[in-house]
Amino acid sequence: MSKYLHREDAPWGDDVWELLDKTAINAAKTQLSARKILNVMGPYGLGQKSLPGKEREVGEFRVSEGLRLAKIHRVFTLPVTDIAAYEANGLPMDLSNVATVALEAARMEDDLIFNGSEDLGTEGLLDAEGIHSVDLNDWDDVGMAASDIINAVTTLDEAGFHGPYNLALAPKNYNLLYRRYERGQMTELDHVSKIVARLVKAPGIEKGGVVVNDGPQYASIALGQDLMTGFIGPVGTDYELSMSESIALRLLQPKAICVLK
Q1: Same domain, yes or no: 223 and 200
Q2: Which of 12, 95, 195, 257 lies 20 to 30 angstroms, CA to CA, from 143?
Q3: Could you give the angle at which helices 14-29 and 80-89 cross, rounded to 10 degrees?
Q4: How far is it, in rounded angstroms, from Cα 96 to Cα 167?
Q5: Residue 258, in any domain of the structure
Q6: Structural contact between residues 67 and 52, judged by C-beta atoms closer than 8 angstroms
Protein backbone atom coordinates (compact mmCIF):
# COMPACT_ATOMS: atom_id res chain seq x y z
CA MET A 1 0.00 0.00 0.00
CA SER A 2 1.22 3.50 -0.79
CA LYS A 3 2.27 5.50 2.26
CA TYR A 4 1.38 8.63 0.32
CA LEU A 5 -2.34 7.84 0.59
CA HIS A 6 -2.16 8.30 4.40
CA ARG A 7 -4.09 5.12 5.12
CA GLU A 8 -2.09 4.66 8.33
CA ASP A 9 -3.51 7.97 9.64
CA ALA A 10 -7.08 6.63 9.63
CA PRO A 11 -8.51 5.87 13.12
CA TRP A 12 -9.83 2.43 12.06
CA GLY A 13 -8.27 -0.98 11.61
CA ASP A 14 -7.31 -3.11 8.62
CA ASP A 15 -10.69 -4.85 8.54
CA VAL A 16 -12.39 -1.57 7.56
CA TRP A 17 -9.84 -0.92 4.83
CA GLU A 18 -10.36 -4.45 3.53
CA LEU A 19 -14.11 -3.83 3.36
CA LEU A 20 -13.66 -0.51 1.56
CA ASP A 21 -11.16 -1.98 -0.90
CA LYS A 22 -13.35 -5.00 -1.64
CA THR A 23 -16.39 -2.79 -2.25
CA ALA A 24 -14.45 -0.48 -4.59
CA ILE A 25 -12.88 -3.32 -6.57
CA ASN A 26 -16.15 -5.22 -6.99
CA ALA A 27 -17.92 -2.07 -8.19
CA ALA A 28 -15.13 -1.11 -10.60
CA LYS A 29 -15.02 -4.59 -12.13
CA THR A 30 -18.62 -4.25 -13.30
CA GLN A 31 -17.58 -1.27 -15.45
CA LEU A 32 -13.99 -1.86 -16.51
CA SER A 33 -13.64 -3.53 -19.90
CA ALA A 34 -10.50 -2.13 -21.54
CA ARG A 35 -8.38 -4.10 -19.04
CA LYS A 36 -10.07 -7.28 -20.25
CA ILE A 37 -8.85 -6.91 -23.84
CA LEU A 38 -5.46 -5.25 -23.25
CA ASN A 39 -2.41 -6.33 -21.29
CA VAL A 40 -1.78 -4.31 -18.12
CA MET A 41 1.72 -3.04 -17.29
CA GLY A 42 2.51 -2.11 -13.70
CA PRO A 43 1.50 -0.73 -11.31
CA TYR A 44 4.77 1.19 -11.07
CA GLY A 45 3.79 3.40 -8.14
CA LEU A 46 2.18 6.74 -7.42
CA GLY A 47 5.38 8.65 -8.22
CA GLN A 48 5.56 7.35 -11.79
CA LYS A 49 4.36 10.29 -13.88
CA SER A 50 5.49 9.05 -17.30
CA LEU A 51 6.99 6.08 -19.13
CA PRO A 52 9.59 5.98 -21.91
CA GLY A 53 8.10 6.34 -25.38
CA LYS A 54 9.30 6.12 -28.95
CA GLU A 55 12.51 7.92 -29.85
CA ARG A 56 12.70 10.48 -32.62
CA GLU A 57 15.30 12.83 -34.05
CA VAL A 58 15.13 16.53 -33.25
CA GLY A 59 17.84 18.36 -35.13
CA GLU A 60 21.13 16.83 -34.06
CA PHE A 61 19.57 15.20 -31.03
CA ARG A 62 17.55 12.05 -30.38
CA VAL A 63 14.81 12.31 -27.76
CA SER A 64 12.25 9.96 -26.21
CA GLU A 65 8.59 10.89 -26.46
CA GLY A 66 7.52 10.11 -22.91
CA LEU A 67 4.09 8.63 -22.24
CA ARG A 68 2.35 10.75 -19.61
CA LEU A 69 0.14 9.03 -17.06
CA ALA A 70 -3.21 10.69 -16.33
CA LYS A 71 -4.30 10.78 -12.70
CA ILE A 72 -7.92 10.07 -11.84
CA HIS A 73 -8.91 11.42 -8.42
CA ARG A 74 -12.29 11.42 -6.68
CA VAL A 75 -13.28 12.41 -3.13
CA PHE A 76 -16.08 10.96 -0.99
CA THR A 77 -17.19 10.82 2.64
CA LEU A 78 -18.25 8.21 5.18
CA PRO A 79 -20.12 9.03 8.41
CA VAL A 80 -18.07 8.67 11.59
CA THR A 81 -21.02 6.94 13.29
CA ASP A 82 -21.22 4.25 10.58
CA ILE A 83 -17.57 3.31 11.01
CA ALA A 84 -17.83 3.36 14.81
CA ALA A 85 -20.92 1.12 14.75
CA TYR A 86 -19.21 -1.32 12.40
CA GLU A 87 -16.07 -1.61 14.51
CA ALA A 88 -17.94 -1.82 17.82
CA ASN A 89 -20.85 -4.09 16.89
CA GLY A 90 -20.31 -5.30 13.34
CA LEU A 91 -23.30 -3.34 12.05
CA PRO A 92 -23.35 -2.88 8.24
CA MET A 93 -22.05 0.39 6.82
CA ASP A 94 -23.62 2.34 3.99
CA LEU A 95 -20.94 1.87 1.34
CA SER A 96 -22.86 3.38 -1.56
CA ASN A 97 -20.47 6.35 -1.71
CA VAL A 98 -17.53 3.96 -2.10
CA ALA A 99 -19.23 2.11 -4.95
CA THR A 100 -20.30 5.37 -6.63
CA VAL A 101 -16.80 6.89 -6.81
CA ALA A 102 -15.28 3.56 -7.85
CA LEU A 103 -17.73 3.42 -10.77
CA GLU A 104 -16.92 7.04 -11.67
CA ALA A 105 -13.20 6.28 -11.71
CA ALA A 106 -13.75 3.13 -13.76
CA ARG A 107 -15.86 5.02 -16.31
CA MET A 108 -13.18 7.69 -16.60
CA GLU A 109 -10.53 5.01 -17.14
CA ASP A 110 -12.45 3.24 -19.90
CA ASP A 111 -13.35 6.53 -21.56
CA LEU A 112 -9.68 7.55 -21.61
CA ILE A 113 -8.52 4.21 -23.03
CA PHE A 114 -11.24 3.88 -25.67
CA ASN A 115 -11.83 7.52 -26.64
CA GLY A 116 -8.72 9.39 -25.55
CA SER A 117 -8.92 12.93 -24.18
CA GLU A 118 -9.01 16.19 -26.10
CA ASP A 119 -7.95 18.07 -22.96
CA LEU A 120 -4.89 15.84 -22.52
CA GLY A 121 -4.18 15.62 -26.23
CA THR A 122 -4.28 11.81 -26.19
CA GLU A 123 -5.82 9.31 -28.59
CA GLY A 124 -7.85 6.24 -27.71
CA LEU A 125 -8.30 2.81 -29.25
CA LEU A 126 -11.32 4.03 -31.22
CA ASP A 127 -9.82 7.16 -32.76
CA ALA A 128 -6.04 6.74 -32.92
CA GLU A 129 -4.27 7.62 -36.14
CA GLY A 130 -3.40 4.58 -38.24
CA ILE A 131 -6.02 2.15 -36.96
CA HIS A 132 -8.18 0.08 -39.30
CA SER A 133 -11.96 0.30 -39.40
CA VAL A 134 -14.88 -1.55 -40.98
CA ASP A 135 -18.43 -0.30 -41.38
CA LEU A 136 -21.13 -2.29 -39.61
CA ASN A 137 -24.08 -3.75 -41.46
CA ASP A 138 -27.56 -3.93 -39.94
CA TRP A 139 -27.42 -6.48 -37.13
CA ASP A 140 -31.20 -7.01 -37.14
CA ASP A 141 -30.58 -10.15 -39.16
CA VAL A 142 -29.03 -12.98 -37.20
CA GLY A 143 -25.60 -13.73 -38.63
CA MET A 144 -24.64 -10.21 -39.71
CA ALA A 145 -22.78 -9.54 -36.45
CA ALA A 146 -20.56 -12.58 -36.94
CA SER A 147 -20.05 -11.58 -40.59
CA ASP A 148 -18.88 -8.07 -39.63
CA ILE A 149 -16.54 -9.43 -36.96
CA ILE A 150 -15.06 -11.90 -39.45
CA ASN A 151 -14.54 -8.93 -41.78
CA ALA A 152 -12.66 -7.05 -39.04
CA VAL A 153 -10.49 -10.06 -38.19
CA THR A 154 -9.75 -10.59 -41.89
CA THR A 155 -8.71 -6.93 -42.18
CA LEU A 156 -6.16 -7.41 -39.40
CA ASP A 157 -5.04 -10.73 -40.83
CA GLU A 158 -4.36 -9.14 -44.21
CA ALA A 159 -2.41 -6.36 -42.46
CA GLY A 160 -0.06 -8.96 -40.96
CA PHE A 161 -1.64 -9.31 -37.51
CA HIS A 162 -2.73 -12.92 -37.17
CA GLY A 163 -4.18 -13.07 -33.68
CA PRO A 164 -5.18 -14.09 -31.15
CA TYR A 165 -7.83 -11.36 -31.19
CA ASN A 166 -9.78 -9.72 -28.39
CA LEU A 167 -13.12 -8.02 -29.01
CA ALA A 168 -14.97 -5.37 -27.01
CA LEU A 169 -18.52 -4.48 -28.02
CA ALA A 170 -20.90 -1.73 -26.97
CA PRO A 171 -23.64 -3.19 -24.73
CA LYS A 172 -26.41 -2.83 -27.33
CA ASN A 173 -24.27 -4.64 -29.90
CA TYR A 174 -23.14 -7.31 -27.44
CA ASN A 175 -26.68 -8.09 -26.32
CA LEU A 176 -27.76 -8.84 -29.89
CA LEU A 177 -25.41 -11.83 -29.87
CA TYR A 178 -27.74 -13.73 -27.54
CA ARG A 179 -30.10 -14.48 -30.44
CA ARG A 180 -30.18 -18.00 -31.83
CA TYR A 181 -29.69 -18.98 -35.43
CA GLU A 182 -32.86 -20.26 -37.10
CA ARG A 183 -31.35 -23.71 -37.47
CA GLY A 184 -29.79 -25.41 -34.47
CA GLN A 185 -29.21 -24.20 -30.92
CA MET A 186 -26.15 -22.01 -31.53
CA THR A 187 -26.32 -18.31 -30.67
CA GLU A 188 -24.23 -15.64 -32.35
CA LEU A 189 -22.43 -15.34 -29.02
CA ASP A 190 -21.32 -18.98 -29.38
CA HIS A 191 -20.26 -18.29 -32.97
CA VAL A 192 -18.29 -15.12 -32.25
CA SER A 193 -16.61 -16.74 -29.24
CA LYS A 194 -15.00 -19.19 -31.67
CA ILE A 195 -13.59 -16.31 -33.75
CA VAL A 196 -11.94 -14.30 -30.96
CA ALA A 197 -9.99 -15.30 -27.86
CA ARG A 198 -11.78 -12.84 -25.56
CA LEU A 199 -15.18 -11.24 -25.99
CA VAL A 200 -16.34 -8.58 -23.52
CA LYS A 201 -19.22 -6.18 -23.08
CA ALA A 202 -17.79 -2.65 -22.92
CA PRO A 203 -20.00 0.04 -21.32
CA GLY A 204 -17.30 2.55 -22.28
CA ILE A 205 -18.12 2.10 -25.98
CA GLU A 206 -21.28 3.82 -27.18
CA LYS A 207 -21.68 2.03 -30.51
CA GLY A 208 -19.97 -0.78 -32.39
CA GLY A 209 -16.75 -2.15 -30.98
CA VAL A 210 -13.04 -2.78 -31.44
CA VAL A 211 -10.91 -5.81 -32.28
CA VAL A 212 -7.37 -5.86 -30.89
CA ASN A 213 -4.54 -8.24 -31.73
CA ASP A 214 -3.55 -9.44 -28.28
CA GLY A 215 -0.05 -8.67 -27.03
CA PRO A 216 1.80 -5.87 -25.17
CA GLN A 217 3.93 -5.34 -28.26
CA TYR A 218 0.83 -3.88 -29.92
CA ALA A 219 -1.16 -2.12 -27.17
CA SER A 220 -1.38 -2.17 -23.40
CA ILE A 221 -2.55 -0.21 -20.38
CA ALA A 222 0.19 1.39 -18.25
CA LEU A 223 -0.56 1.82 -14.55
CA GLY A 224 1.29 4.10 -12.18
CA GLN A 225 -0.96 3.60 -9.19
CA ASP A 226 -3.80 1.12 -9.48
CA LEU A 227 -7.25 2.11 -8.21
CA MET A 228 -6.88 2.64 -4.46
CA THR A 229 -8.63 4.33 -1.56
CA GLY A 230 -6.82 6.88 0.60
CA PHE A 231 -7.50 8.80 3.81
CA ILE A 232 -7.84 12.61 3.85
CA GLY A 233 -9.22 13.43 7.29
CA PRO A 234 -12.24 14.45 9.38
CA VAL A 235 -14.80 16.85 7.93
CA GLY A 236 -17.56 17.73 10.38
CA THR A 237 -19.27 14.48 11.36
CA ASP A 238 -17.76 12.57 8.43
CA TYR A 239 -14.42 11.24 7.32
CA GLU A 240 -13.21 12.33 3.89
CA LEU A 241 -11.49 9.78 1.67
CA SER A 242 -10.09 9.63 -1.84
CA MET A 243 -10.24 7.17 -4.71
CA SER A 244 -7.40 7.52 -7.22
CA GLU A 245 -5.31 5.90 -9.92
CA SER A 246 -2.88 6.94 -12.67
CA ILE A 247 -3.11 5.41 -16.12
CA ALA A 248 -2.34 5.70 -19.84
CA LEU A 249 -2.92 3.84 -23.10
CA ARG A 250 0.37 2.56 -24.54
CA LEU A 251 -0.39 2.12 -28.22
CA LEU A 252 2.66 0.92 -30.16
CA GLN A 253 1.02 -0.58 -33.26
CA PRO A 254 -2.20 1.20 -34.29
CA LYS A 255 -2.48 -1.11 -37.30
CA ALA A 256 -3.12 -4.01 -34.88
CA ILE A 257 -6.48 -2.39 -34.05
CA CYS A 258 -9.70 -2.57 -36.08
CA VAL A 259 -12.74 -0.51 -35.09
CA LEU A 260 -16.28 -1.65 -35.86
CA LYS A 261 -18.11 1.54 -36.80
Answers
A1: no
A2: 257
A3: 110
A4: 31
A5: no
A6: yes
Range of the domain at 195: 132-213
Contact of 27 with 21, CB cutoff 8 Å? no
| pLDDT at residue 151 in the model | 98
Closest CA to 83 of 73, 72, 97: 97
* Nearest-angstrom CA–CA distance, 93 and 84: 10
| Torsion sign across C-alpha atoms 248, 251, 257, 261 | positive
In this prediction, residue 1 carries a pLDDT of 56
Question: Tens of pLDDT along 66-112?
Answer: 889 999 999 999 999 999 999 999 999 999 999 999 999 999 999 99
CATH assignment at residue 21: 3.30.2400.30
Instruction: Report the DSSP pairing between strands 228-235 and 219-223.
Output: unpaired
Do residue 71 and residue 140 come from a single domain? no
DSSP one-letter string for 163-230: --EEEEE-HHHHHGGGPBPSSSS-BHHHHHHTT-SEEEE-TT-SSSEEEEE-STTTEEEEESS-SEEE
Please tell me the predicted confidence (pLDDT) of residue 150. Answer: 98
> For the chain, what is the domain count?
2
The answer to whether residue 259 is domain-embedded is no
DSSP 3-state percent helix, strand, coil across the chain (nearest 5): 35, 30, 35
